[in-house]
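Box 4.2: Ligand-aware structure prediction
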Amino acid sequence: MIKYALQCANGHAFDGWFRSSDAYDRQVRRHLVTCPNCGVTEVEKQPMAPALVKTRRATGTPAQAAHRDTGETGATQAESARPPVEVLRAFRRHVLDNSEDVGPRFADEARKIHHGEADARAIRGEASQEEAIKLHEEGVEFGILPVLPEDHN
Ligand SMILES: [Zn+2]
């Protein structure tokens, strides 16, 4: 995935995620990229280098994602060192114990909470990579549950 810093014809700055620079070009040409602030489709890249993000191609199983309450500080972890599995397990148990399982409705529910159409609460569920990217584009905050060794059984 490539993240581009974009700017609309009215000067609003926002981020967009694209599969490739070709995909970006295609979507802009077809007016599929709209400014989240004013909705115009005249957008262009801000002059800066795109940030590359490594994504794992989801094979069969959808990514597990958890929505966190906005007030919560959450478990921020250093990207360089992967915390020990006990920590991940404890974090995941905390999420599982303190969130409502909405299953495949995760994306819809997270979006509703984000827009204030549903009670603000911690939810968890499943989202495809595409859904996760879309949520991210819409500014919906969520985290990905860590994968544990026992998940591969
Ligand atoms: Zn705009």
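In the box above, the bound molecule is zinc ion. The first helix runs from residue 21 to 29.
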